[in-house]
């Protein structure tokens, strides 16, 4: 099988994007893992598959696979790349594009300056829906009820986290300095803990001031990436809930900056940022 793909990235979070409307694509997790390999394959953090939508008032279906081959609910940087991809492939000429993901509906807006603003929907803070088990392994502790932050036990240490779903699960740890944070060791330990039954993306946030944060993210199914769009949204939501941030925040990730805003409650989180197309290619499987 020959597959035509486009390599894209959003702030260095890189993707292989495949037009599954003009090509018949059925990939196994093994094939995705092979393609994601940076030595033996193409190399990417996520594979994005564009399909026709069977949902009313929605232009496309947008499927997301991590480099470990697992299909996931949401990808913020990917959504921005997706918007440019469907326009570049002449699949649409719309500037406002509605897509359905495993998690629900997203609205993408291609701005005149080329940036894409995504309505990421309202964040979910209710533990059971993230899913997050606040009292895992210690059922006599406080119940699994919504709090501003939670203390969890990781490697015999108490770690304070914010827990947020942006369609996919996120834990947010506040650190003094993202540069010296033990992103891989702590990220992996939180991911593997019984607090998050579906695993979790772990963000390490340094609050610079009320409108600026630095963020590194250890992603589920990938490891540390240069940027994570849903991670940026989750970190800003966690910071706002804890009273540390204003409603509009610049998020400085390893690969560059995203602008995130949230007016609280059931309002949607808005994410704005750039995308880039790197090359087009064909792979034979
Ligand atoms: N890089 C993404 C998130 C991709 C999915 C994530 N690794 C998960 O498993 O939930 C983004 O930009 O949001």
UniProtKB/TrEMBL annotation:
One of its GO terms (cellular component) is cytosol. Keywords: Amino-acid biosynthesis, Cytoplasm, Isomerase, Lysine biosynthesis. GO terms for biological process: lysine biosynthetic process via diaminopimelate. It comes from the Bacteria. The record marks 279 as: Important for dimerization. GO terms for molecular function: diaminopimelate epimerase activity. Substrate binds at residues 13, 46, 66, 76-77, 168, 201, 219-220, 229-230. It is found in: Cytoplasm. The active site is at 75, 75 (proton donor), 228 (proton acceptor). Belongs to the diaminopimelate epimerase family. HAMAP family: DAP_epimerase. This is Diaminopimelate epimerase. It comes from Cocleimonas flava.
